[in-house]
Amino acid sequence: AAPSAPTQVVPEVYRDPPPPGAAPADPLPPAADAFTAAPEPEPAAFVQEEEVVEIFTRLTRGSGDSDFDSTETAFPAIAYLTPGGISEWSQTEQNCFFEQINADDYRLKPNAPSLRYLTRNEQFIRNEDVPRTFPSPQYEVSGLAGGYCNRPLYQVLRAGQPYLFVSVAGIGVGAEGQRASGLVIIWSSDPRP
C-alpha cells in the first residue's frame, strides 16, 4: 500500500469565558480623527472545501490529461529534501509559509487552507496554470508588486470582489523563477503583514 500523504493539523483554541462581573478587554483606543484611523482591512475570503478541490483540480491539469500534482506522493519529503528544496530555504522563508515543516510533516499558516506541490516548471505554473485556473471573466488575477517573501503573490477577484490570494514558490534545480517544480499555496487572506 502506498503511504498516505501527511495531513495538516490545525489545533482548536477555545477561550475561557471571562469571570462574572469582569470588564471586557479594552479595545484599542479610538483614532483621533478619520485621517488617522486605520483603514478597514480587506475582507478575508472564505473558501469552501469544495471550492478548494475544484480550484486544485483546474490547477493541476496541464494541457491534455497530464496531472502534475505530486502532493500526495512527494510532499513534504521530496519537496523538502531535493536540491534547491525547502530545507535550503532560510528559517525566515520557511516561516512565511509554514507554522512547521520537515521531511515528514508540515503545518501551514492558519490563513492558508491548502497547498499543492506541482512537478511542473515554476514559470509554467505562474504563466499558464494560475491564469487557466482562474479564467476570465469570472475571475481576475493580478500579480502584486513585491510579492510575498521574495515569491510571486497573486490576488484573485471573483466577480470583482476579493476572493483569495495565491503564492507560487519554486522548488528544485533551475534558475530563480524557473525552478523544476513549484509549490502553490492558497491564502484565504493577504499573507503580507
Overview of the structural elements:
The protein is of the alpha+beta class and 193 residues long. The protein has one domain (49-187). 21% of the residues lie in helices and 21% in strands. The chain has five helices and seven strands, in the order H-H-H-H-E-E-E-H-E-E-E-E. The protein has helices spanning 49-60, 71-74, 77-81, 91-97, 122-133, and strands at residues 98-101, 106-108, 114-118, 139-143, 153-158, 161-171, 181-187. The strands form two sheets. A five-stranded antiparallel beta sheet has the order 3-7-6-5-4, with helices on one face. A two-stranded antiparallel sheet has the order 1-2. The chain starts with 48 loop residues before the first helix and ends in a 6-residue tail after the last strand. Mean pLDDT is 79; it is low at 9-15 and 22-44.
